Amino acid sequence: KDNKESIKIDKIKGNLTAKNLTIMYENSNRKVINNVSFEIKKGELVALVGPVGCGKTTLARALGRMLVVPKGALFLDEYDIVNIKLDDLRKNIAIVPQEGYLFTNTLEENIKYGDTNATKNQVEDTATKARLIDDIKGFPDGFETLVGERGITLSGGQRQRTALSRALLTKAPVLVLDDALASVDNKTAALILRSIREENNQTILLISHQLSAAAACDRILVLENGLLVQEGTHTELINSKGTYKNLWEREQAAESIEDKK
Q1: For residue 178, which phi and psi values (nearest 5 degrees)?
Q2: 233 vs 45, 137, 175, 239, CA distance in Å?
């Protein structure tokens, strides 16, 4: 909810800052996010990775103010996100969850939910950036293809790329992908990230368990048990002992087993 001090904002650059961010859920003493600090500059592509249950999705929810965020802990540019009008916050930080909600309508209308005034060309442009356009061209009805309730008529990867197309249409300065490419293969995920970055100049926070996609990012933040335990480039992190190297070696081993099947 907005408070009495809520302010409208415009002309956001897209810098994200956390200052000693700590989050506990109601009726629990456990710190899901524990004293986390980081700075992400406008236009940076940063990955947030870590073991299951480390607090990754909690951070995404905090950025969208889907849970209670303490004052003075999370900032969009110089604005405390607690003091930004919720509508304004969500116009400037587009969050794509792992399961983006799709409704019973055409593919085009599902994408246009991000901007109901978008032109056909704009819809096609975002679908192209999200690597969805070839799938759409393969459908007999193209953009007029009817999407069943919750996107039941699409594959998992197509649903995720439709939700991403919608988010891109908002042109938000900050894009948060919360495992939003989990059903897309690593090569396609890397192409999507490169395409968005080159053309949109958005700040992108990739929250993911796909380390192969994270490896292509400018920097990687590593969470474990709510703590920020490592930070650096992929090369720096695999050349030092710690959580990231362990996760990377586990993923490579799993992929090697899969390739042999």
Answers
A1: -90, 85
A2: 11, 37, 20, 10
The model's pLDDT over 135-170, given as tens digits with 9 standing for 90+, comes to 999 999 999 998 877 777 888 889 999 999 999 999
Predicted TM-score of the model (pTM): 0.90
Q: Identity (one letter) of the amino acid at 46?
A: V
198: amino acid identity, one letter: E
62 Cβ neighbours under 8 A, 6+ residues apart:
21, 23, 33, 69, 74
Extract the tokens encoding 188.
């396609």
Strands 219-224 and 203-207: unpaired
**Which residues in 171-217 belong to E strands, given as ranges?**
174-178, 203-207
Cα 137 to Cα 197: distance, rounded to the nearest angstrom: 24
Token pair for residue 64?
Answer: 């969208």
